[in-house]
Amino acid sequence: MRIVQKYGGSSLCNAERLQAAAQRVSKLARQGVQVIVVVSAQGDTTDELIEKARQVNPQGSAREMDAYLAAGEQLSASLLSMTLETLGVCAVSLCGWQAGILTDAVYGNARILELCNDRILTELEKRNVVVVAGFQGINRHGDITTLGRGGSDTTAVALAAFLRADLCQIFTDVDGIYDRDPRRYPDAQRFSEISYEEMLGLIQNGAQVLHDRSVEMARAYNLKIEVLSSMTGAPGTIVG
Question: pTM of the prediction?
Answer without folding.
Answer: 0.94
